[in-house]
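Supplementary Methods S3. Input chains for the assembly prediction are listed below.
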Amino acid sequence: MQSEKIKLAKVLEKIGDYFSPKVVGEVNDVYVKVAKIKGDELPWHNHKEEDELFLILKGSLFFEIEGEDGFVMEEGELFVIPRGINHRVSSVEECQILLVENKTTAHTGEIVSTITRTIADQLE
Amino acid sequence: MQSEKIKLAKVLEKIGDYFSPKVVGEVNDVYVKVAKIKGDELPWHNHKEEDELFLILKGSLFFEIEGEDGFVMEEGELFVIPRGINHRVSSVEECQILLVENKTTAHTGEIVSTITRTIADQLE
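Predicted C-alpha cells for the full assembly:
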C-alpha cells in the first residue's frame, strides 16, 4: 500500500506520451491517475459498467459526448462521464488531467487503437 | 447521474464550515469531495476497511499518522492513508482539499465529535 506523498507535477513531468495515464493512487477499488492530452487520436469509446471522472489540472480539454454538443473544460473543472456513454476528449495545446476510474476500467473501453494502454502500462 | 461539469472553486466558495466535505462527483462506489480545512479540531480517527485519498488544491495541510512524524502537504500533492491507520489533519491557514473515499466511509470513522458530518450533510 502506498504510504508516501506524491507530487503530481513530478509524475506528469516524467510522462512521455500523450493519452498515456499513470496511476498515482490506489483507493479501495479505484485508481486515481494523471495524464497529458494533446491531439485528437483518442477514439470514441465507452465503459459499459463504469463511470469515469475527469478533473482538469492544467490547460483546457475539449469533451465530446455522442449526440451532444462538445464543450470545453478548464482548470479546476470536473466532469463525470456516466457508464455506457460514448465519449472522447482532445486538446490542441497540452492539457493535464486527473482521472478517477475503477481498477477494472479499460483505457479505451472495447475499442483498441494504437494509443490504447493496458493497466500494466499505467502502473509502470 | 451527474452530467454537468462542476467548477470546484464555486463549490468551495459556498462551503461555510471548515472540516465539512461536500460531494462533487459520484464515480461507481466512490465519492469525490472537496473541503476546506482550518484549525485542529479534527479528532484522531481511522476508517477500518477503507483507504482515503487527499489531494491539496490550495494552501498546505499538516498530516499526522499515529506513531510517525507529522508532515506538510503542499498544493498538487496527494497522499493515500491506508485503511485502519489512525490519522488527523490540521492547518493554521485555510487549506482546500479534494478527497476520494468509498461511499460508505464515515467522516471521522467511529469517532463522533462536534464537527462530524453525515453523508447526507455532505450531499447537500
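The two ends of chain B are 15 Å apart (CA to CA). The helical segments of chain B are 8-14, 119-123.
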